[in-house]
Every structure is written in C-alpha cells, then in structure tokens.
Specification:
This protein is an all-beta fold and 289 residues long. The chain contains one helix and 24 strands.
C-alpha cells in the first residue's frame, strides 16, 4: 500500500508518494497549485522518475550482456514501491533497492535514492544511483514533471520556454517511441520558444544536445518558473495533445534509436557505473514569490 510524505516551509508544500517516489503536488503557501494533478483522462502521471532507462526500447525489450529482458517505457522505478529512508520538515528521501522483481528485468544490484528538498521558494529533486554489483552497470535516468499550462492565473496568455544559454538546439522526433536519427531545425529562436499545442501532435520534442543547464517557463506578464539542471544534458518537452499541462523533462539518456541497438549500454547518452560507483542527477525549480 502506497503512502505519502508531506514536506513544507513558509513558501511551499510538496507531497511525495512512496509509489515511484513521485511528487504528487507542488503548492504555494497562498494555495496556488503548480503541478499537474494527474487526471487519467489525459495522463495519470504527475512527476515520474525514469529508471533504469528513459523512453522506449525496441519491441519493449532491452539486452544486457547479450541476454534479452522485457522493459516497458521509462523503466520500472515509476511503478515500484520505494521505502521512506528519512524525512524532516523540508526534505524526504525514498530508496529503491534491487529485488527479485527488478532482477527479473534488470540483472543488477543497485540502490536508487530520490530526495525532495525545499529551500525557500526552491524545490530540488535529486536522484543518486549506486552500483552495488560486481560488474559495470548501464542505465539512463530522467525526470518527467508536468506543470500546469496555463500557469495559475495566466489563462489566455502566451507561454514561453527560454533557455538560459540562448541556444537554438537541434530538434529530434520519435517514431513508435524511438528516436529518429534526423536532426531537424530548432524551434527555438535566440533561446526562446513560444509554446503551441500543435507542436506536440507528433509526440515529444527532444533536444539531445545544447539545451544547457537551465531555463525559464513563463506566461506573458507572469508568473514564471525557473529551472536548473545538474548532470542532465538531454531535454524533452511533451504534452498530451490538448491537455492543460507541459512536461519539462531533463534527462541523462534518451529512448533507443530507431533501427538501433536494444543493448542498454549502447542507448544514446547511457551511463555506465563501475562497481561501487555512484552518480547524482538533479533538477531545481524556483517558484514566484
């Protein structure tokens, strides 16, 4: 049975579920809600953690050291029950360790720890992956948080995503959930993209390189959300067509390539940890005062 942990300070309150260590709510002290509420009529997710892979595998199967395993989209962490390892007023840490269920699809000993922590108007979500096995362990990790579109109080206003680095990163698209090799012209102009629902009729917009380490998601005239990313070089933007949310997804790793290998270690931007090694990945979002 899943449970929830609430963390809060004088500015923000966050609810986190033991199922997937997934954030369920992100609210301002004034009652404004910023996170998508998970209406299953559009999409039941809210802020899933993607591990040990991001996106899809060919025929929903991966291979590890030549052996084939079934693996659904975005991996198993989001559907796994985590254990609350510690919490205080403004932070909580959930952990997922290898089990018989995970070994059946991902043959490694590992620990995935997800921490949500508040600092003033900022929420940081960090994930640490530890290889507890005796051999190299490949994986991908990503975040999939859905924020309201329109933002609170901003109905009818244009919404933009503006990259801190002012870049115009190349766009890639998906076919049957797999990354197409073609690089398309960037929809960003001098780092800025005005969102339009039609952009997502062809599924997610993926920017494998060059999106930088931070961005601003804003409505014309306010409000705005400031994001920063640590160790997450890939960016995706996604909306279920017509739904009132936008997913701002920083990743380390993408879906497998169309026509490419099903080997987990050979997926784009896959990480391989040596025995005993750890790696951390985090995003921070700052809410308006």
């Amino acid at each position: 049975m899943s449970s929830q942990t609430r963390i809060a300070n004088s500015h923000l309150a966050v609810d986190v579920s033991s199922l997937g260590a997934e954030m369920q709510a992100l609210n301002s002290a004034d009652g404004r809600a910023w996170l998508w509420h998970g209406d299953a009529a559009f999409w039941g997710g809210r802020s899933p953690i993607l591990f040990p892979m991001v996106g899809k595998a060919p025929e929903n199967r991966i291979s590890v050291e030549g052996k084939s395993y079934e693996m659904g989209q975005h991996g198993f962490a989001r559907r796994s029950e985590f254990t609350l390892a510690g919490s205080d007023a403004v932070s909580c840490r959930y952990e997922l360790a290898a089990s018989d269920a995970t070994r059946a699809v991902y043959p490694f000993e590992f620990l995935l720890a997800v921490t949500h922590a508040l600092d003033g108007l900022k929420l940081t979500v960090s994930a640490q992956v530890e290889n507890r096995d005796s051999r190299p362990m490949p994986f991908g990790l990503g975040y999939h948080p859905a924020f309201l579109w329109p933002l609170p109080g901003a109905q009818g206003r244009a919404h933009t995503v503006t990259l801190d680095n002012g870049a115009e990163p190349a766009l890639t698209r998906l076919e049957n959930g797999l990354v197409k090799p073609e690089k398309l012209a960037s929809p960003f102009k001098k780092g800025s993209l005005t969102l339009d629902h039609g952009m997502f009729e062809a599924d997610a917009m993926i920017f494998p390189e060059g999106a930088g380490t931070g961005l601003l998601y804003a409505a014309e005239g306010g409000p705005e959300l400031k994001f920063s990313f640590e160790n997450l070089p890939n960016l995706a933007l996604w909306q279920k067509p017509g739904a009132p949310f936008i997913c701002i997804e920083p990743w380390q790793g993408t879906a497998a390539e169309l026509g490419g290998s099903d080997d987990l270690a050979k997926r784009p931007y896959s990480v391989t940890l040596q025995p005993g090694e750890k790696a951390s990945f985090a995003f921070t979002v700052e809410l308006p005062a």
